[in-house]
Design goal:
binds 1,6-di-O-phosphono-beta-D-fructofuranose, Fructose-1,6-Bisphosphatase, Chain A, domain 1, binds magnesium ion, FBPtase, about 25% strand, five-stranded mixed beta sheet, 7 helices, metal-binding
């Protein structure tokens, strides 16, 4: 069977041998995420026809206006993960606190926790621009059989057993890693099956695309301003091309395929950056590193940051390794900005 026809389900089974604690639970967990992604995809694809556009009129713990699709996607992933009895807890961008999930017999026998950004790129929902879902999976650290605790979620990114995203774009893709490279699967909507379309995805070492919201330029640290000047100079293969979709998943996906760097630094508006360490930066960092890329906060490796809060934010520099290194070179000239 040529690689093009390998389904996600077959790939998961074939690759189960890689899983650290191989008992099939992680396979079932990824299968559940696949199922929830298909349900959300179905709604996203007809967003203009159903009452799913616009805000719900409430703000989440981030202080952001929750979009109807944020809430819908959150409900679908929470229900699917709860019903399938494979996780002992979930933390979500749309939930104030982590949610403990009891197993059928009222126990706490499951060993995985999931951290999720149910709908990434919320500002693009109403304008038909690609959005995504991001997930990160850890083995719990507290004893199985006991209720899940905050410490099960506040683990360094290096402890992730799997991470991935779904991009709801011109096509719908699920891209994930279990620490053995990064593979992308495209949904055939006619039959509702994901097929392996992008095996062994990898960031080129270099690229000529930079992704940053330049509208915040005046608020950026000097190192970022210097790097942007560097990107826009007429030297060698520069000026680079500026591309910014405003959905982390979509900007990351493009940069992984074409070569590029995504930056969401601190700014006087967002003194710690905007993106959330646990369910945006850590999973994308795991994917980046598994795909020959790099992810830092401008100074140090994202995945070595010891989390202290569920919804903490960090600056994010991610993409082709030589481009991130260039950006870090400019940040290094201002060591005081490492203390955000
Ligand atoms: O509008 P800004 O400030 O440029 O922020 C865009 C960034 O914020 C995000 O939308 C944050 O994610 P959510 O939509 O999940 O809150 C990223 O996807 C995106 O890269
Ligand atoms: Mg997000
Ligand atoms: Mg979100």
């Amino acid at each position: 069977m040529s690689q093009k026809h390998t389904t996600l389900g077959e790939f998961i089974i074939d690759n189960q041998k890689h899983f650290q604690y191989s008992s099939g639970e992680l396979s079932r967990l990824i299968n559940s995420i696949r199922l929830a992604a298909k349900v959300v995809n179905h709604e996203v694809n007809k967003a203009g026809l159903v009452d799913i556009l616009g805000a719900v009129g409430e703000t989440n713990i981030q202080g952001e206006d929750q979009q109807k699709l944020d809430v819908y996607a959150n409900d679908i992933f929470m229900q699917t993960l709860t019903n399938r009895q494979i996780v002992c807890g979930v933390a979500s961008e749309e939930e104030d606190d982590f949610v403990a999930i009891e197993s059928n017999n009222g126990g706490h026998n499951n060993k995985y926790v999931v951290l999720i950004d149910p709908l990434d790129g919320s500002s693009n929902v109403d304008v038909n621009v690609s959005v995504g879902t991001i997930f990160s999976i850890y083995h719990r650290v507290t004893p199985i059989g006991t209720p899940v605790q905050l410490e099960d979620f506040l683990q360094e990114g290096t402890k992730q057993v799997a991470a991935g995203y779904v991009v709801y774009g011109t096509s719908t893709m699920l891209v994930y890693t279990t620490g053995h490279g990064v593979n992308g699967f495209t949904l055939n909507p006619a039959i509702g099956t994901f097929y392996l379309s992008h095996p062994n995805m990898s960031f080129p070492d270099d690229g000529n695309i930079y992704s940053i919201n330049e509208g915040n330029y005046v608020h950026f640290p000097q190192g970022v301003k210097d790097y942007l000047k560097f990107c826009q100079e007429e030297v060698d293969n520069r000026p680079y091309t500026s591309r910014y979709i405003g959905s982390l998943v979509s900007d990351f996906h493009r940069n992984m395929i074409k070569g590029g760097v995504y930056l969401y630094p601190t700014s006087s508006k967002a003194p710690k950056g905007k993106l959330r360490l646990l369910y945006e930066c850590n999973p994308m960092a795991f994917l980046a590193e598994q795909a020959n890329g790099v992810a830092t906060d401008g100074y140090k490796r994202i995945m070595e940051i010891k989390p202290t809060e569920l919804h903490q934010r960090v600056p994010f520099f991610c993409g082709s390794k030589n481009m991130v290194a260039d950006a870090e070179g400019f940040m290094a000239m201002y060591p005081e900005d490492a203390n955000y």
